[in-house]
Design a protein that fits this description.
- By secondary structure, the chain is mainly alpha-helical.
- It has four helices and two strands; from the N terminus they run H-H-H-E-E-H.
- It is 60% helix and 10% strand.
- Strands 1-2 form a two-stranded antiparallel ribbon.
Length: 83
């Protein structure tokens, strides 16, 4: 697992219980499973989002989301009009 302890401790204050939980490794398997699932789905960083199955990885502007949402809505409306 990456050096999450150093990253988190530099970003915020850490309580003793959080460090004990991290050190215990209790959730390592669950975290690794989630990481692998994200990688299979195309997530390559954080934050990671999906808009109707289209991945957006990393910090994105509102305009980036809006562009995809508008395109997906147009495709849906076009499909509905042909049925």
């Amino acid at each position: 697992m990456p050096n999450i302890s150093a990253a988190v401790s530099s970003a915020c204050s850490i309580t003793g219980s959080w460090l004990l939980c991290l050190a215990s490794g209790k959730y390592n398997a669950q975290i690794e499973e989630d990481v692998q699932e994200g990688m299979r789905a195309g997530v390559s960083g954080t934050p990671g989002f999906f808009v109707n199955g289209i991945p957006l990885s990393g910090a994105k502007s509102e305009a980036a989301f809006e562009k995809i949402i508008q395109a997906e809505l147009a495709a849906f409306e076009s499909k509905q009009a042909t049925q």
